[in-house]
Write a structure and sequence with these properties.
alpha+beta, Ribosomal Protein S8, Chain: A, domain 1, five-stranded mixed β-sheet, 9 helices, elongated
């Protein structure tokens, strides 16, 4: 009855006739959608119509059509909600399954190296070497701190993890060989007459100047003075160690002093504490 009253307000001259719209801009389903969504019926009058597109039907047929369309809309909405919920649940289960599969595929290995000195050399300055390994193999690599055992932990794809492990083992072996060669050279020098081991401390900013490009200056000093020089190592030591006859070592230190002065024009004060020599600005 309320619907009939509303229709009488819209079309007072045809209170008991109802209309079905066949124009492109408005159809019976459009009217049904508006009524189902509680739109103001007075706004329906703004729908464009033409006299030729209007036909008359009986009130009972019109109401049956409205209720039939309303039931269809409600049924469609419920089904859409059910389908959407089902889809969300299925997607969530698939994501959980994928995450679980990924965790199962993650492989983990540990690599022990000789000492913390090798850890520092493998990691590199500011972690540059270990960052390169991470990027190259797309693996997580945990580096031990100074207070931890020298053990690397690697996780990721199995093949890539094993490749990283081999890289670290190879680097550890390389540094071990260098250390062995170093010890051999040191033994050769300290077995000479009046052999000594002197540590030379200079300001950090001049270390690269003393080493020279590709170590050329240090290599020349070793050849000229028949001594062995161990250069500072990042995070290990900040001094040069000179092995060989004491007189030869003292001559090499004077050459280093003059070399820095020639390049920078800075005079250094020399302070000696037993076998430690400090060049101070």
């Amino acid at each position: 009855m309320d619907m009939a009253k509303n229709l009488r307000c819209l079309w007072p001259q045809n209170a008991f006739d109802t209309l079905s719209f066949k124009s492109e801009t408005a159809s019976s389903s459009s009217l049904t959608s508006l009524l189902c969504n509680n739109f103001d019926l007075n706004s329906i009058g703004t729908i464009a119509t033409s006299p030729t597109s209007i036909t008359t039907t009986s009130p009972s047929e019109f109401q049956d059509g409205l209720y039939s369309d309303s039931n269809s809309v409600i049924s469609y909405g419920v089904n859409s909600i059910i389908n959407s919920s089902s889809s969300s649940i299925i997607n969530g289960e698939q994501q959980q399954q994928q995450s679980s599969d990924k965790r199962r595929k993650t492989y983990c290995e540990t690599v022990s190296v000789e000492n913390s000195g090798h850890v520092a050399q493998i990691v590199g300055k500011n972690g540059c070497k270990i960052k390169h390994l991470r990027a190259k193999y797309d693996c997580y690599i945990h580096t031990p701190t100074a207070n931890e055992e020298p053990v690397f932990i690697i996780s990721g794809n199995k093949d890539k993890v094993l490749a990283v492990k081999q890289e670290i083992i190879k680097a550890d072996s390389h540094f071990a060989n260098i250390k062995e060669e170093r010890n051999t050279k040191i033994l050769q020098k300290i077995n000479l007459n009046d052999a000594a081991c002197i540590r030379l401390f200079i300001p950090d900013k001049y270390i690269g100047l003393v080493v020279g490009r590709n170590g050329w200056f240090v290599k020349d000093l070793q050849t000229m003075h028949n001594i062995y020089i161990e250069t500072p190592k990042f995070n290990i030591c900040n001094f040069f160690q000179l092995f060989g006859p004491r007189n030869s070592i003292n001559s090499a230190i004077q050459v280093i002093y003059k070399h820095i002065f020639t390049k920078t024009g800075i005079h250094f004060n020399e302070r000696i504490n037993r076998d430690d020599v400090y060049l101070i600005e």
